[in-house]
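Write out structure tokens for Lysine--tRNA ligase.
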Amino acid sequence: MADITHWADVVAEEVLARGKKHLVATGITPSGHIHIGNMREVVTADAAYRALLDKGTQAEFVYIADTYDPLRKVYPFLDESYAEHVGKPLSNVPCPCGKHASYSEHYLEPFLGALKRLGIHPTVYRADELYKQGVYTDAIKKALVKRDEIAAILKNVSGKTPAETWNPFNPICSNCGKINTTIVTCFDLDAETVDYKCSCGHSGTVPMKGGGKLTWRVDWPARWKALGVTVEPYGKDHASKGGSYDTGVLIAKEVFGYDAPFPIVYEWIMLGNEGAMSSSSGVVVSIADMLKVVPPEVLRYLIIRTKPEKHIKFDPGQPLLTLVDEFERLHSIDNPGSYEKRILELSHAVGICHTDIPFKHMITIYQAAGGDFGKIMRIVKRAGYDTKNEKCIKELADNVGNWLEMYAPAFAKFSVKDELPVQAASLSELQRAFLASFSKMISLQAELSGEDYHNLVYSAKDQDSELTREMASILGISPDQVQADPKDLFKAVYTAVLGQQSGPKAGWFLSSLEKDFLVERFSEAANYKP
């Protein structure tokens, strides 16, 4: 794999053939929770942007929130009161929680916060502000004048004939506030105004500056020209034959005199067995929610490791641990090849926390400590991890705590019992002898590491070990008669502490608990008489 060039660098090389100055753009409509499917677009754009910078290119990175798009319907997550707002620009629709300036800001704010946590820092534009600032005015004029040419492009490329009343500009009705129920009747290029009539019965005049917006298939190429976009990732729906990219290419060139940006087409992220994520369908895990659960660098890795044209299957339950394991293994390679090193570089970003504590170990530590961060820090220190960056350890602990609460399967959860579990009554004589011997041996030693505990239990297979001799003495037999299966001994450990026959990785688990507690608990279990 060492000779493979990462896809972001391949993109950068092809883009450089077009020139030395570039603007990478990404845009998402904040119509609902912005999910990790959307994250693929932004991380892909960020990776391409960073690859361009690494090659010494003059590059910029922008994110456009499509806040002037209309609310298309009452989505499953909205109450029926929003029916009256369907058709209005998202920036003009009330906030669902009442704490934000608009509907669009309600969903945009957590997304922008998530981008910062992911180490992604584009210049952010809101479409409603761009229109009100007049950024699109020239494009609106050209589109209105060349209405018939655009209609012909749409018909020839997409195969769909626009209605006779179709117009590339959608005015916002000053009476009902809707943007998708108006028809342009005439326009004045000098005054920069557009006359319209609305299905609500109202007629009026709006300024081109902020009085409406271009339809999507015209808005997109107009944006390329207005902002100078040269690179843009977009979903495969826009890349289909006759889709909005195909029409955009011709509209950009023939109407706006601009070459379409370099395309990076990406596939969907599939949520478990539920299919592609979609804000409107409710099949969604928001980026903000995922960052409560997974370290930011792992979420970046999810996107960075896979070529954009390949779909990604994501499951925040038990399979998430496989993803984290894969990332941590990559991190642990002493001499990674250039390809692996590049994946790690692009998975990291300035400001993102990183700790050497494995996610799975923190799952054990967190539950052993009952979620108490003071106890977590003591366990982390005892385990020999670097404790200087307490902030990063706290982030990881919070990730694990939220994962346990939100997505963890039942088998991953456990709780250390305050008192000896009644299940201790089921322990065999051999298991009791083991716990008594184990308790005695660890009481005589200094702090043990996870590996120490693991090796001590496995020493029961050796007839000459101190543990085996101690067990034989308690049982009144010779050491060569002790038939100890480590699996049964671990079951005894879990039974005494958790009240169940299985649990987390035993070494990590035991080293996460206070030695004095273990000594007392194992001794009590060994002598328990129900």
